[in-house]
Amino acid sequence: MRRLRLVGIVFGFSAFLLFFIAGLGQAQDTIKIGFFAPITGPAAADGMSAKHAVELGLKEVNDAGGIKGKKVELITYDDRLNPQEAVAIANKLLERDKVVGVVSGSYSGPTRVTAPIFQKAGMPMVAGYAVHPDVTWDPTQKKPNDFIFRNGYLGEVEGAAAAEFAVKNLKAKKISIISMDNDFGRAISAGFAARAEKLGSAILTKQMYKFPGEKDFRPFLTRIKEGNPDLIFAAGYYNEGASIVRQAKELGITAQILGEEGFDSPKFLEIAGPAAEGVIIATNLDRDDPRPVVQNFLSNYRKAYNEDADMVGASSYDAFMILVNAIAKVGTDPKAIQKALLETKDYNGLTGMISRFIQGEVVKPVQIQVVKGGKFRRLAVIDNPEVITPPTKQ
What predicted TM-score, i.e. pTM, was given to this entire model? Predict the structure, then answer.
């Protein structure tokens, strides 16, 4: 009886060992990439857009054979636009999921709190569109987060590009600013104001509204109307942007409204309706770019999800593909991936030709789009090196 029991134990252990080895081999056949976005909550439309676009990229990569024969596995989490939730996600991706790199499809709040966690762990992260400077910079150590990269624009760069167009192309001399009181609004409006004033325009008023929660923009707009500006620069997300342009029209404001990437959503066009016509935005996606990478993405996204793609999705797609491109070159060692990202040159991105990264910040032109016939259409491209080259920090 003892001998039979011993044989059973040995057989059971052997089976477990074989199962474990087989599982280990299977795990090594996939390359895990982490991803987080606000899939539910107040920014769910943007979160789903980011998720859909990255899943489209994932399918393209795996349908083409993966990375050197290995399938890519996307480990997806919903941060609900909650920084505390994002911190927990970062730790799960590192400790439990054992990813080789991470893509942020989220806003500045969740992205900037996860950046130091990934930096400390030596884990590469590419942010799709978060604009806050502290994503790629550690303000406590006063040095770059050199494992963190941003495919979208630094807030001050995007804001400065919008101002460049406002002053040089639209000849705006008197400008009013209305922006949301969060990382996104503060960063972009500060960049806009600094560049506009440097170019000689006057900023008549700077007003900030609370987020989330603000719905009535009439008091802000009434004050703006009293100053009779040539142009209104509005920084907000699609819901707030739509309310601003609708209420401005109701108040009889005729000044040109210039927005930014937060307006870049089918939801903005849907909610704003006819009031969106003629609104101009600085953004990351040119729908009229003839390159196949752009037109194929736009066509495939509409076919897959029955709606038009937006900047959030395109930027997140690029972030994923940039990371995949680095892994394809050097393998899955995080330090090697970081080096490959640092050495990225002339990358043919969906959201523009990336010439290089400087301290994790992308260098590429800023797109200016206008709402025409209920669609975002190309108006201009800002490629002035003085504007689009992010400042280096010491």
Answer: 0.89
